[in-house]
Amino acid sequence: MISVMWHLTSVVSILESVCAIPGMKKSHELLRGLMEIASDFIVVYLVACVAIVEAFKAVAIKGPEDVGALEIGPGPKLLIAVALVGIPMVTNIGGFLVQSIFYYACKTYYPMGIDMVVSDDNLDKYLGDDIPLKSSVDIDTLCV
């Protein structure tokens, strides 16, 4: 339950600028009646993370004394390792996407309005400062 609230609190803190204990209270308020669905999402995410760790263990470069290591060459192991680095990245980005969608689903499940202007203003803080160009850029001169 704490893990479910923690994941939703991270979305609440970014989209609503409500941090720490008030953010946990807000996420708990949003999760009323939806805890089972949210728990299912978290379990799937954690199972995916455990599967990735176990896959790393299976293809880890081990010495000849280790019996549990798969017998494959260093080239395929390198390709598998690169793939296993990409899979957690996709898993985490997908997890963030599901958390954000679930946040909006919780907001619409209860008659809470979604204020997109406030969300947009809160997200603008994370863009950083725009640095204006010192001169105009002509695309035609760049594509010669």
UniProtKB/TrEMBL annotation:
<keyword id="KW-1133">Transmembrane helix</keyword>
<feature type="transmembrane region" description="Helical">
    <location>
        <begin position="78"/>
        <end position="106"/>
    </location>
</feature>
<protein>
    <recommendedName>
        <fullName>Amino acid transporter transmembrane domain-containing protein</fullName>
    </recommendedName>
</protein>
<feature type="transmembrane region" description="Helical">
    <location>
        <begin position="37"/>
        <end position="58"/>
    </location>
</feature>
<keyword id="KW-0472">Membrane</keyword>
<keyword id="KW-0732">Signal</keyword>
<feature type="signal peptide">
    <location>
        <begin position="1"/>
        <end position="20"/>
    </location>
</feature>
<keyword id="KW-0812">Transmembrane</keyword>
